[in-house]
Amino acid sequence: MRDRSVVLELCAIGLAALVFVATFQVRPPYLDFALAAAAVALIVFSAARSRRLWELERSVDPTGARGAWKAALVFTGAALIVLAGAAVLAARAAGAPAAERFANWHMLVAAALYLPWALLQQYIFMFYWFGRWLRLVPLPVAVALTAVAFAAVHFPRWPVMAVTLVAGGVWALIYYRWRSLVPLAVSHALLGTALHYWVFGNDLIERWLPLLERWLP
């Protein structure tokens, strides 16, 4: 399998991503859904090629998913402690009690609802994007490029970009060693909802309900 084809593929994706970001303020919302659906369809259809590329990497740990779960849970636990500290500081700055942010049971529902979307993102960036960069550059560079791409899709939400830059790098290292997406998706869903509920004080369920009402008959 020629690396040149990987280069051309990544260049095309990079160009499309630049156009996507540069025009996000002038595109109608429905076009975002159409472009995202088209991109996901292309990535899913190339799953066999992605699998062959990953088979060229000899980095799989024999513990498999069990090792991935352990590593993901350790990272998620440490990250939740950091986010909890940031939440206390944010609540204090807003003059509101931090306990309200931690006690909102909507967070668990939001995390469960967010899990499929988190799994899709991990599939795109780890299984597809990361695997291709490993054919072209050393592991540290591929990890960095994957983390930057993960952060870039959250533009222009700078705090979210900062968090996903760090998390994306850790998730890439975990996937490189254990090749398991579900533990990463669970970590992604928990940290994403904790960031919104604890640090930002946003109730995702309350934000999502009006959108659902628009779509449901």
Word description of this protein:
By secondary structure, this protein is mainly α. It has one domain. The chain has ten helices and no strands. Helix 6 (106-133) crosses helix 7 (139-152). The longest helix is centred in the middle third of the chain and has 30 residues, at 65-94. The radius of gyration is 18 Å and the shape is globular. It starts with a helix and ends with a helix. The model has no long low-confidence stretch (mean pLDDT 86).
How do the helices and strands follow one another from N- to C-terminus?
Answer: HHHHHHHHHH
| Biggest sheet character | none
Give the mean pLDDT: 86
Q: Strand content of the residues, in percent?
A: under 5%
